[in-house]
Design a protein that fits this description.
Helices cover about 65% and strands about 10% of the residues. The chain has about 575 residues and is of the alpha/beta class.
Length: about 575
C-alpha cells in the first residue's frame, strides 16, 4: 500500500513533521468542537440560557479546523506538484538519454501514459498517503483518549470494532491490489496498442484491413472495460463493508448510551460527546479506505516510474572525438544485433571515410532502420568491433559522436511552437536573416506567406496543420542552419511523400549533403545514383556493398532488387 520510496523524496521528513503538528491541532479542534457543542446542547436541555462563550468556542474550533484543512491541502499540493515535476523531468531525461532503445523496449504508449497520467496519479498518491496516513495515526488516538474520560465502556466498544474494520480492509485490500496491478499492466498494453494503431491507420486503410483491425481494438478495449468493472466491484465492496461496520459500531454505542440515559447511569453531556466523537473516530480510516483505489493506481505508477528511471543505461563509450573531417574513418566489423523476438541483424562489416553519401537499400523489414539506429547509437550491438577516428569502441552511443548528428526520420517532429523556433530548434541563436535563408533554400516561402503571423505563427499539434512535405522541409531547414554538425542520418525521409514533392525536396536536400558524412536509408531507386557508396540489406544481412556501377556489374541481389522494384520480370 505504502511505497517506502515515497519517504525518500527530498523534503519528506520536513513535510511529515509539519503535517504531524497540523494533525495534532486538528485533533484538538475536533475535540474542542465536540465538547463545546455537547455542553451547549446539555445546558439548553436542562433549561439554561444559551452559553455564548461555549458556542463561540464551537464556531472557532469549526473555523480553525477548516482553515487547517485548507492550509494542509495547499501545502501538500505544492509539495506534491514540486516532487512529481522533478520525477517527470527525471523520466523525460531518461527517455531523452536512452532514445529509441528505451522507447522500443517499453512502448511509446506506455511511456506517454507514465509521463502524463502516471505522474498525475503519483501527485495524488503523495497527497493522499501523506495526509491520510498521518490523520489515521494521530486523530483517532486523541479522540479515543477523550472518549475514555467521557465514558470508558463506549470507548472500549468502539476500539474493539477498529481491528475488525482493519481486518476487512486488509482482506479486500489485497484482492483490490492484485486486480489493480494486473489492470495497470493491461492499461499499458492498451496504451501501446492505441498508439501503434494511430501510427498505422493509413497503412491499414490502404491494405483494406482497417475494418478488420477495428474489431481487434474493440475486443481489447472491451476486455479492459470488463476487468476495470471487476476492480471497481471489489473497491465498492470494500467501501460497503467499511461503512456497514462503522455504522453498526456507532449504532451499538448509541443504543447502549440510550439505555444508560433512560436508567440514569450516564449523563447527557458525556453521551452527546461520545455520539459526536464516534464518527470522528472512524472518519480517518473511512477516508483512507475511500481513496484506497486511487492510492493503488498512484502506487503502481510511482513504482513503475522509479523502475524506468533506475533501469540500467544503455552502454556508452566515453571517447574524445573531434568534428568529422574529410580524412576521418569509421570501420565496423562483424556487427550483430538481436531483438527479443530472436530476429538478428548482421553480420555487418563496412568502412566509410570522410565526406561520403552512403545509401542503405533493401525491402521493408530488411534491417535498414535497425542499422540506422545502430549507427546513431540508439541501439547497442550484441557484438561488434568499431574503430572511429582511430579509437576502438563497442557501440556508437558516443556523446561526442551523437553531438555531431543531424537525424531526420520518416516523420520529423514539429513542436507546438512558432515556425521560427521550430526551424531554429538546434540553433536557437540564429538570426532572422539566417532563418529566412534556410526557409528559402528548403522551399518554405509559400508556407510563410500563408501563415497569418509569418515566422511567429504557432504550428504543431492542435495548431496549424502541416503536410508531410512541409514537415520534412522544416527538418531540412534545421539541418541547413546547423553548419557545425557534419554527420547526417536519414531514415527513409521521403517514404510517405508523393513523387512530385519528393523530387522537389531532393533538389534541396542534395546541396545540404555536401561536405558531410551521410547515411541515407531508402527504398526509392532514384536516390541511389546520388550515393557515393551503397549498402544492400536483405533479411538483416549486408549482402552486397559498393558503388552503384560496381553493384550493377555484379548482377547479384542488388540487380534483382532493382528489377523487382521497377516491376521487371526475369525469365
Amino acid at each position: 500500500m505504502i511505497d517506502r520510496q515515497l519517504f525518500k523524496l527530498a523534503g519528506a521528513s520536513a513535510i511529515m513533521r509539519k503535517l504531524a503538528v497540523l494533525e495534532v491541532l486538528q485533533a484538538i479542534f475536533i475535540i474542542g468542537q465536540a465538547l463545546a457543542l455537547s455542553a451547549v446542547l446539555t445546558q439548553l436541555w436542562v433549561g439554561l440560557p444559551l452559553n455564548w462563550p461555549l458556542l463561540l468556542i464551537f464556531v472557532l474550533c469549526f473555523i480553525l479546523r477548516r482553515v487547517q484543512d485548507t492550509y494542509r491541502d495547499g501545502m501538500l499540493e505544492k509539495y506534491a506538484s514540486q516532487e512529481t515535476e522533478k520525477l517527470r523531468k527525471q523520466l523525460l531525461n531518461k527517455v531523452f538519454n536512452e532514445g529509441r532503445n528505451l522507447v522500443q523496449r517499453q512502448g511509446t504508449g506506455s511511456l506517454i501514459t507514465m509521463a502524463l497520467d502516471g505522474v498525475d496519479e503519483v501527485r495524488q498518491y503523495i497527497k493522499l498517503i501523506y495526509s491520510k496516513v498521518l490523520t489515521m495515526m494521530i486523530v483517532p488516538i486523541f479522540v479515543f483518549v477523550c472518549m475514555l474520560f467521557l465514558n470508558w465502556i463506549s470507548a472500549v466498544v468502539l476500539l474493539l470494532m477498529y481491528p475488525l474494520i482493519i481486518l476487512f480492509m486488509i482482506i479486500l485490500g489485497y484482492a483490490a491490489r492484485d486486480r489493480s496491478a494486473k489492470q495497470f499492466g493491461n492499461f499499458q498494453v492498451l496504451s501501446n496498442n492505441f498508439i501503434d494503431s494511430l501510427r498505422g491507420i493509413d497503412t491499414l486503410k490502404y491494405l483494406g484491413l482497417s475494418r478488420r483491425y477495428s474489431k481487434s481494438i474493440f475486443n481489447l478495449s472491451e476486455n479492459f472495460r470488463k476487468k476495470t468493472m471487476k476492480v471497481l466491484r471489489i473497491a465498492m465492496l470494500s467501501t460497503f463493508a467499511l461503512d456497514f461496520f462503522t455504522t453498526l459500531s456507532i449504532a451499538i454505542v448509541a443504543v447502549f448510551l440510550g439505555f444508560g440515559l433512560m436508567n440514569g447511569k450516564i449523563g447527557l453531556y458525556p453521551a452527546l460527546g461520545i455520539l459526536i466523537l464516534a464518527p470522528e473516530f472512524f472518519l480517518p480510516i473511512r477516508d483512507f479506505a475511500g481513496d484506497y483505489h486511487a492510492t493503488l493506481n498512484g502506487k503502481n505508477s510511482f513504482k513503475r516510474i522509479n523502475e524506468l528511471i533506475a533501469m540500467p543505461s544503455q552502454p556508452s563509450e566515453n571517447l574524445k572525438l573531434t568534428d568529422w573531417q574529410k580524412d576521418d574513418e569509421l570501420l565496423i566489423k562483424n556487427l550483430r544485433f538481436n531483438y527479443k523476438s530472436a530476429a538478428e541483424i548482421g553480420p555487418i562489416t563496412m568502412k566509410v571515410k570522410g565526406y561520403q553519401k552512403v545509401g542503405i537499400i533493401g525491402m521493408s523489414g530488411s534491417g535498414k532502420t535497425t542499422l540506422i539506429n545502430l549507427l546513431s547509437g540508439f541501439l547497442t550491438p550484441s557484438t561488434t568491433e568499431i574503430t572511429v577516428q582511430g579509437q576502438s569502441a563497442k557501440t556508437m552511443n558516443i556523446p561526442d559522436w551523437q553531438r555531431q548528428l543531424i537525424y531526420i526520420p520518416q516523420d520529423p517532429y514539429v513542436f507546438t511552437a512558432s515556425l521560427r523556433n521550430n526551424v531554429a530548434f538546434y540553433t536557437p541563436d540564429a538570426s532572422d536573416e539566417e532563418i529566412k535563408e534556410a526557409i528559402h533554400v528548403t522551399g518554405l516561402d509559400d508556407l510563410v506567406k500563408d501563415l497569418p503571423d509569418g515566422l511567429d505563427t504557432i504550428i504543431g499539434q492542435g495548431k496549424r496543420v502541416l503536410s508531410g512535405g512541409q514537415a520534412q522541409r522544416i527538418a531540412l531547414a534545421r539541418a541547413f542552419l546547423d553548419k557545425k554538425r557534419k554527420v547526417m542520418i536519414f531514415d527513409e525521409p521521403t517514404a510517405h511523400l508523393d513523387i512530385e514533392t519528393e523530387i522537389d525536396l531532393k533538389e534541396r536536400m542534395l546541396p545540404l549533403m555536401q561536405n558531410r558524412l551521410v547515411f541515407f536509408a531508402t527504398h526509392r531507386l532514384h536516390w541511389l545514383k546520388e550515393m557515393d557508396y551503397i549498402l544492400v540489406m536483405n533479411h538483416g544481412e549486408l549482402v552486397e556493398q559498393g558503388t552503384y556501377d560496381e553493384l550493377q556489374e555484379k548482377h547479384g541481389y542488388f540487380t534483382k532488387l532493382m528489377q523487382g522494384m521497377r516491376g521487371e520480370v526475369n525469365d
